[in-house]
Write a structure and sequence with these properties.
single chain, alpha+beta, nine-stranded mixed beta sheet, eight-stranded mixed beta sheet, 20 strands, globular, binds flavin-adenine dinucleotide
Length: about 450
């Protein structure tokens, strides 16, 4: 085996703190690595994928030593700054998708999603997480337009044909639930789980005990592979490991993996200041995804200081995996408009926190998964549905490394490889136009 070195050309900068992190009490972070350590497996990246890989390795071989490192503190990455929907069903079942192959594909997608949800349900039970962290409440999808309503009805029918429970809601029912008249209809699916994402990833990280250890603020600067093992270099330390799991999402490309195959897209969220529960009728806790895939997500949460509304909307192409001040500002303006459209009587509510986060997509919507090099495995680029898919990718990568067979592993191994993106600079223009067109298509949704 020839020795190889993969340098990180770029390290993550996650940008403004998320509202989720801001709402949590202070935590003692795990120290940065400042020494030389030796371990069986090193996992780079402590998001959904990396944390799930560590948990699964510990399940499969409790004696295996595992070191997890993250460039930042746990919770600052995309896994701690998303909208917190763990969704068990495919976002969209294309019309005409009733063939045997399509039905099997839908079933596989559901298995991938539900494996992740079961993984967290088990951790929730073992660690006695309360419903502010992990709430198996189901989720809604809301339509703002007639076209959105037609879409929800068609989706409901397709779900029923697959034997999946769901319930359509009319305008009066959505008003009763949300306290606003803006939504024309809704669809409830009971299998989704709503999480406080930063609290959940922190809770998992804090549950690690010897022989699983975690070092925060410890970026991997280089990975060297040789027949004797791997060496991961960090600013003040060195990790000698048998094998590496790369769980760095789009930053796999920063090491040269998936080069020219990952599309770096950001999406954004804003969280209101707290308000008195009596200010807005309806239920005090619910979450709804849009009726159109590129539309706007809304969530109501509550805490000791009152209730808040979260809005997630807008997609941008950010090839450097960073969002600048101007992009953040434009996303904020969009949020205010979408918020006022949904809650016209509460448009005076101020957004207390605004943030963005990175997602890695691929042209053919498959993850960057599997053994990339001798001793290097990947669970990256899960196309924006990381709550479930990145988690399952991490589980499947751990199983692949150990040689454990499962149906989940079969599904991940059967994914095609990511296809090359069209040539730059066309890709930049193409991606921006495509996102703009699809956002336009989503319209008021
Ligand atoms: C605003 C927003 C809302 C979203 N809402 C949802 C939702 O409701 N449901 C859903 O399913 N998905 C949602 N997503 C997508 C989801 O958050 C991501 O797909 C998921 O978090 C990806 O998980 P991951 O573990 O693969 O990657 P990440 O969470 O990105 O973790 C990768 C980690 O690797 C670390 N890293 C990178 N490079 C290095 C290095 N060189 N050395 C060490 N560490 C490194 C990073 O710091 C990071 O912590 C949303 C995303 C955003 C931004």
């Amino acid at each position: 085996m020839t020795a190889k070195t993969f340098h990180a050309r770029r390290l993550p900068d996650h940008g403004a703190q998320s509202g989720w992190m801001a709402l949590l009490p202070p935590r003692t972070t795990r120290p940065a690595l400042d020494d030389t350590v030796t371990t069986d497996v090193v996992i780079i990246g402590a998001g959904f994928a990396g944390l799930a890989a560590a948990v699964r390795l510990a399940d499969l071989d409790p004696k295996l030593s595992v070191v997890v490192i993250d460039a930042d503190i746990v919770g600052n990455g995309a896994s701690g700054r998303n909208s917190g929907f763990l969704i068990d069903l495919p976002h969209d079942i294309a019309s005409g998708n009733f063939g045997v192959v399509a039905a099997a594909k839908n079933r596989d997608e559901i298995l991938v999603a539900r494996t992740a949800i079961q993984h967290y349900a088990r951790l929730a039970q073992e660690n006695a997480w309360d419903q502010d962290i992990f709430d198996p409440s189901g989720k809604y999808a809301f339509a703002m337009t007639e076209a959105g309503t037609a879409h929800l009805k068609a989706y409901s029918k397709q779900l029923k044909s697959m034997g999946e429970a769901n319930q359509l809601l009319g305008a009066a029912e959505t008003e009763e639930l949300t306290g606003t008249r803006s939504f024309k209809s809704g669809l409830f699916t009971p299998g989704a789980v709503m999480v406080q994402p930063a609290a959940m990833v922190r809770a998992i990280a804090d549950s690690f005990r010897d022989p699983v250890s975690l070092f925060e603020r410890t970026p991997a600067l280089a990975i060297e592979t040789a027949s004797s093992g791997c060496v991961v270099k960090t600013p003040k330390g060195t990790i000698n490991a048998g094998r590496v799991i790369l769980a760095t999402n789009g930053h796999a490309e920063s090491f040269g993996f998936g080069k020219g195959k990952l599309l770096h897209v950001f999406t954004y969220a804003s969280l209101t200041e707290p308000f008195a529960p009596s200010l807005l009728g309806g239920s005090r806790k619910w979450g709804a995804t849009p009726a159109a895939p590129m539309g706007t997500t809304i969530r109501r949460i509550n805490g000791p200081d009152g209730d808040r509304l979260l809005i997630r909307s807008r997609y941008t192409y950010n090839p450097n995996i960073e969002a600048g001040v101007g992009t953040m500002k434009r996303a904020g303006t969009r949020h205010d408009r979408k918020f006022a459209d949904r809650f016209p009587d509460h448009r005076h509510l101020k957004m207390q926190y605004r943030w963005g986060g990175a997602m890695a997509l691929t042209w053919n919507s498959v993850p960057l998964f599997g053994q990339l090099e001798d001793r290097i495995f990947a669970a990256c680029a899960c196309n924006g549905i990381g709550g479930t898919k990145s988690t399952s990718a991490g589980i499947a990568a751990a199983e692949l490394l150990i040689g454990h067979h499962s149906r989940l592993g079969d599904i991940f191994r059967a994914f095609d490889k990511p296809q090359p993106l069209p040539l730059s600079p066309l890709i930049g223009l193409g991606a921006r136009l495509n996102l703009a067109y699809r956002e336009w298509q989503a319209g008021r949704e």
